[in-house]
Amino acid sequence: MKSEWRDIKSLMVGDERAFIAFMDHYSSVLFHYAFNIVHQKELAEEIVSDTFFEVWSSRKELDKIENIEGWLHRIVYNKSISYLRKENRQKSLIPLDELEDFTFEICLSQEDKLIEKEKLVSLNKAISSLPSKCRHVLYLVKIEKMPYAKVAEMLNISTKTVSNHLTFAMKKLLEVLKNEMVLLLLFIMVHK
């Protein structure tokens, strides 16, 4: 244990051989730890490499760290979680250009049988006249039943903006559909 500390002391003064010995000592255990979190070999290797870069960058302050191995694990954990969050965010962001137009499908429930087919066509036409972001927000909140906060996070906008898009969409639908009973259909579908 004292030889490890001596290596760390040598590392603190910039001894590259001590740093190589340090990496040899910890790389395997850190790689397995990162791999168990991210489940990708190349990414786990990159995380360990970034961890050692961080060690080298802060080498002059290593004597202030009481538990080097715990500190290394925390760095690997934080970098792994950061990557997973970033990857999740990137997967959940959908460019508006790639959104498919959606329409309300005619379902065979009792409520849907009562609603005339032409009113459903009118509703779909009115929805397709909305700006794409409004359509997307309307779909996610009213059809997919996603909470405002989740939609805001997914589209990288504020919850107030989600609310504004919905308000705009509902006003536009009211204008386009005027006295038609299609809004009744929309609310029936929302409250199923």
What brief labels describe this structure?
192 residues; mainly alpha; Rna Polymerase Sigma Factor, Chain: A; 2 domains; 0% strand; disordered N terminus
Provide a descriptive summary of the structure in words.
It is a single chain. The protein is mainly alpha-helical. The protein folds into two domains: 2-92, Rna Polymerase Sigma Factor, Chain: A (Orthogonal Bundle), CATH 1.10.1740.10; 96-190, Arc Repressor Mutant, subunit A, CATH 1.10.10.10. It is 73% helix and 0% strand. It contains ten helices and no strands. The chain has helices at residues 2-12, 16-38, 41-57, 68-92, 110-114, 117-128, 132-143, 148-155, 159-177, 182-190. Helix 6 packs across helix 10 and helix 8 (148-155) packs across helix 9. It is rod-shaped and about 80 Å long. The N and C termini lie far apart (65 Å). 17% of the residues are buried.
